[in-house]
Amino acid sequence: MPVNKNNMPIINYVAYDIETTGLSPYRDKIIEIGAVKVIDNEVVKIFQELINPLIKIPADATKVNGITNTMVKDCRYIEDVLPDFIDFTGDLPLVAHNADFDYSFIKNKWFELTGGMLNKEHYCTMKQYRSYYKSNYRVPPTSARLDDVYRTLCGEPITDHHRALSDAMAVMKIFKIISGE
After folding, report:
1. Phi, psi for residue 172 in degrees, rounded to 5
2. Which secondary structure element, helix H or strand E, spans residue 49, and what is its range?
3. What pLDDT, in 10s, does the model give residues 27-70?
4. pTM above 0.70, yes or no
5. What is the largest CA-CA distance in the chain?
6. Where are the domains of the chain?
7. What are the b/e assignments for 59-94, b being 16+ CB within 10 Å?
8. What is the CA radius of gyration of the chain?
9. What kind of fold does domain 13-179 have according to CATH?
């Protein structure tokens, strides 16, 4: 069961996911943030926003997440959306699948916008799943990709995979299962 630094079970957190124009937090842009705020293991609030990256979204990115230039052309920019997302998270820890990837984008963009460091407690369901799977099945998992983990633990595919809110909901469900709820 995931516990915080005080060895208490984590029942209050924000599960989130981002979609991007590519893989580099230094060159590429965030084009969608989706999140669910969980208090006492219940969803209390949802955050979802497409973001205009001010660049053309590469075809390879659109192929993965289905987000087109037309979809984001009238959307707000990251300098407006990211502060709202950080306000949404408050003092709660963040939970993501492959958290190093998502959090690196969030931290880098926050630094670009504010010049300040973002240092939020965060947890990675991909890392936790690997330990959970080894403990329960005595072998390493064949895949720790979000859709494979969700299918293994929940018995069905993610609806609307590679869209931020749908993936954030999947992260929340995975985190709850791994936490033993």
Report:
1. -60, -45
2. strand 42-50
3. 999 999 999 999 999 999 999 999 999 999 999 999 999 999 99
4. yes
5. 50
6. 13-179
7. eebbeebebeeeebeeeeebeebbeebeebbeebbb
8. 16
9. Nucleotidyltransferase; domain 5 (3.30.420)
